[in-house]
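Is this the right way to post structure tokens for a design question? Let me know if I should format differently. Anyway, here goes:
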């Protein structure tokens, strides 16, 4: 049920983000979704890619600090209140969302949100029991 996310620690200066995308491009890695969180000196680039091992290897060989993180990809009804339905069920169960970002998907009635939870196994249980669709990593990387 879980998916893997690549997290890359990068200096917050001109050209570093382009360097990451160049390395991934040259390694034939397709970026499926991303989020960038920054501070004044460093940022964390979170990526969903089609080849986690290839992305990790290419970036580490170029000197980047890279980590894989377990996340969940959840289908969200693409209408007003769709995201709230999911967040309310998680809140009712005491599960904290550490961060989340959207995954762009063409030709579907649902959006996909990438979540990092404090208790991912409990989140899978709550979401599937409430009828929400959790997208397995193998499927997510090929969407």
């Amino acid at each position: 049920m879980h998916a893997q996310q690549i997290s890359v620690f990068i200096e917050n200066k001109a050209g570093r983000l382009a360097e990451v995308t160049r390395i991934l491009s040259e390694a034939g890695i397709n970026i499926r979704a991303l989020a960038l969180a920054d501070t004044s000196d460093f940022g964390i680039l979170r990526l969903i890619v089609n080849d986690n091992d290839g992305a990790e290897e290419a970036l580490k060989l170029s000197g980047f600090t890279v980590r894989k993180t377990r996340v969940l990809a959840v289908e969200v009804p693409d209408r007003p209140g769709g995201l709230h339905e999911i967040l309310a069920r998680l809140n009712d169960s005491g599960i904290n969302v550490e961060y989340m970002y959207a995954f762009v998907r063409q030709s579907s009635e649902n959006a996909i949100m990438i979540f990092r939870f404090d208790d991912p196994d409990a989140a899978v249980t709550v979401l599937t029991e409430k009828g929400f669709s959790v997208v397995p990593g193998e499927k997510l990387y090929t969407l």
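Format looks fine. Someone answered above. Worth noting: The first strand starts at residue 3 and ends at 11. Residues 16-26 form the longest helix (11 residues).
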